[in-house]
Design brief:
The chain has about 140 residues and is mainly beta. The strands form two sheets. It has a three-stranded antiparallel beta sheet, with no helix packed on it. The mean pLDDT is about 85.
Amino acid sequence: GANIGGWSLYAHEGKLKYCYNYGGFGNTFVTSKEKLSPGQHQVRMEFAYEGEGLGKGGTVSLFVDGDEVAQGKVEATLSNIFSADDGLDVGEDSGAPVSPDYGPVGNHFNGEVKGVQLSIAEDENEGQVVDPKDAVRAMFGRQ
């Protein structure tokens, strides 16, 4: 994603944070209440889409080491691909930033990312404009 639409999962001011950028028209944030303790952690974001059809909202849940640490509501989602040329970044938002919390340079994660998993439940693929598998291949192809 980018400043004209996308999502980002990151640490900000020591807390796990998620930003959903609705096409550059507004941002929704979900932030953990507590700061991350020093050391290695597994972080996860889950999005539960609410309703059928395109553009609906959903519930965002954030997890640290398997424990839910925050939950929030995204009121609406974009029904198209976020960006044709600014896909998936890991450890750094290398294009125009999704979130206003960090700038376009100097936003890299200074720890070690040991793995990333992106999965979409099979039943959530129905009715999508772009097959999610094709979208993921395109995003990773631009790394």
